[in-house]
Amino acid sequence: MELKKLYGDKFIVEYDEAAKIDGKKPEYQIIKCCKRAGNFYVISSSKKIIGFWCIKNRLKKKLLKLFPEMNLLREGDDNVSILGLPSSIFLNVASVAGAKRKRVLSDNHKKKLLSTSKNYRFSRHKMPILKGQETKKGSEAYPTNGKDITSPSID
């Protein structure tokens, strides 16, 4: 069970620090929560159980009260708890816990951004001439007012 395949389109899936040593394996994938509340990770692929490493006591009590399917697997002395939940209720638990979501633009917002940035995109073709930027040729481009600009002069 890979978090990136299941929830990668909605949430930001990262790798745990252990993946730097052992390689990027699916069991090292985590989904972090906002406000440093904890991380979601896979406990058992065969039983489809997701673990939530919870740092906040109030959040732990709220989750256990709202979702009776969750189990308290470990409770530490320093307010760190590990909760187990079935993958079927993950989306609901993630919304309460504040899992980091991917930023997604709506279709209307995409169209608006594309239309407003149309004149400012780089292209291989000749750039469009905007008002006030018409090109002039020869002496019209750089008026010298009759002065010789080839030799420097001190006025």
Would you kindly provide a brief summary of this structure?
The chain is an alpha+beta fold and 155 residues long. It has helices at residues 3-7, 19-22, 57-66, 90-97, 107-116; strands spanning 13-15, 29-32, 38-44, 49-54, 71-75, 81-86. It is built from 5 helices and 6 strands.
Number of helices: 5
Structural class: alpha+beta
Task: Tell me the fraction of residues in β-strands, as a range.
Answer: 15-25%
Mean pLDDT: 82
Radius of gyration from the alpha-carbon trace, in angstroms: 29 Å
**Main sheet characteristics:** 6 strands, antiparallel
Order the strands across the largest sheet as they lie in space: 1-2-3-4-6-5
Helix content: 10-25%
Task: Describe the 3D structure.
- This protein is α+β, with helices and mostly antiparallel strands.
- Helices cover 24% and strands 20% of the residues.
- It has helices at 3-7, 19-22, 57-66, 90-97, 107-116; strands at residues 13-15, 29-32, 38-44, 49-54, 71-75, 81-86.
- Strands 1-2-3-4-6-5 form a 6-stranded antiparallel sheet.
- The longest helix has 10 residues, at 57-66.
- It is elongated.
